[in-house]
Amino acid sequence: MLKSELRAGVEYAFREKRVSGTPLTRIKLLQHVRGARWKAEWIDTHPGLVDYVTTAQILVPWKEHKQFQQEETDLAHLREYNLSHGYDGNFPVCQALQQVYESVEDRISYDRGILQTTLESLNRLRVRSQLSEYTLQSPAFEGRDGFLRLPHDQAEELARNFCMVEPAPVLIGIETTERNWSMDVARPGNEYLVPLLNQYRASWAIIRQWCGSDAAVAERDKRIEILERLVWDAIYALQKAGLDTEATRLRRTIDSH
Description:
By secondary structure, this protein is an alpha+beta fold. The chain has helices spanning about 65-85, 90-105, 120-130, 150-165, 165-185, 195-210, 215-240, 245-255, and strands at about 10-15, 25-35, 35-40, 50-55, 60, 110, 115, 140, 150. The protein has three domains: about 5-65, Roll (SH3 type barrels); about 70-165, no CATH class; about 220-255. It has a five-stranded antiparallel β-sheet, with no helix packed on it. The longest helix is centred in the C-terminal third of the chain and has 28 residues, at about 215-240.
């Protein structure tokens, strides 16, 4: 817990070593000493014992300790499920999922095999992906914060559907990033970015596969057409302003491609 959340006289769940699943001890904070240190009294085990604890060892108010333990159990079950269903932390796939969900921009995120979101945000995305409303499926669970945690396979299935139905927001994002990074790499002194660019290109290839090659090509052609119209508008504007030299240069560039 954060130091600002702690109060003297309140009972908390204490864990000497922050190892998930290990027993919790009931303590009452007596006095803030300094920094992250507090003086505390043990309530159940070794009742009456007074010792010093740190903020990092105080997990939740004691009245919430059962929900906290259940959440730890649910999270461990979810991770075991991921491992037993083929999740291996494969970087390109995980990176692809992160980027897909970042493009949604609706309180939904993916990290290390777990999709985190609210039920409302999840159902909005499922509607966009032409899927039915979500019914909680084990090992997915709702945490104490009201956010759902979904396993890797459910996250990937949803991402694939979204990419097929709405490829535009995903493709625009990755193509913009790829173009900008490619220009950065070409500048002297930025050679160190090459491994990072290559690493991300693997995830971009996966996203394009999920979007479907036809959809990706169609989206790219659409963007090229828009850009070409903008260039011709600029040419006409330059001619109207009497800047024929600049207009001719742009026209030759268009004609040469």
